[in-house]
Predict the 3D structure of the following.
Amino acid sequence: MQSAYSFVSVAMTNHIYQSPLNYTGGKYRLLPQILPYFPKGINTFIDLFCGGCNVGLNVIATNHTYNDINPWLIGLYSAFKNNDKGLMLNTVYEIINKHNLSLVSKYGYAYYNCDSSSGLGPYNRDHFRNLKIHFNQYTGIKDYYYYAMLYVLIVYSFNNQIRFNKDGEFNLPIGKRDFNSKMESKLLAFIDIIKSQNASFTCLDFTGIDSSLLSTSDFVYIDPPYLITCATYNEQNAWNEEKEHLLLKYIDNLTARHIRCALSNVLSSKGKINIILNNWLKCNVSKYNVHHLRKSYANSSYHTSEIEGISDEVLITNY
Ligand SMILES: C[S@@+](CC[C@H](N)C(=O)[O-])C[C@H]1O[C@@H](n2cnc3c(N)ncnc32)[C@H](O)[C@@H]1O
């Protein structure tokens, strides 16, 4: 009953929730094309490579499992889920204030001797560096305060990204913007949604998600790093041909057990072809359906003719 109602309400309001993180590879813009392919009446929804959680946020299910191999990401979401929303928001403002970071929504650009086109980097650079050092040297308990610091770092960092080096240090440079009302709204909506969902957050390699516990009323959404494109989470060979083969085996296993799943990927991109994925599809024509998507380049300067040649973004379903 609850799921039927919620599906209708999403369809009627046409509102799609966005991750509070500007996550590379996030599927927010593709959701209007992806969601209609998802089944209704899902018991447990598994977001196997949850990243920014853009997908799980917008899927109605009795239970949600968000999994990602990135421990900081999962720690951050768990802190949002398990702590009071007001406490998290107040702590974000407290950290911004304590580290003298800008807050244009309150004081305006002129107060910081900056303007919108060149951004707030010149004012925030040293303050951001101090917060980064404090965070990276922090030895206290990784509680709400630690994750509020991480969130502030993400908000003030270059393109609002999340990136840690091999030594586990947050290592992005300063960005152009600060914490604004749009970010605050996305953060608060995100906290509301994950608190209202029966959601659990796990930090495992995808092979650690035991599919033998799933049944035919469950649904697995699979959005791995793409073998033939670049992202911070693909660095240092983190996603390679071996992982791609393992993932396709994982999917075959779900399919053999009639557990529904959908895989996001690109068959080709900027002249590169994912041969492993293309061959797997050729060998399994009767098992999988390939839905070609229109990629959203709303914020790019590409011409239409160029866009079409850029990538073949697909959703592959086993139902
Ligand atoms: C394309 S992003 C997911 C984006 C997400 N669907 C969204 O819309 O925000 C891929 C994610 O896979 C995660 N990842 C990489 N290798 C993994 C692995 N072996 N097991 C689980 N997660 C992994 C990365 O940390 C990254 O967050």
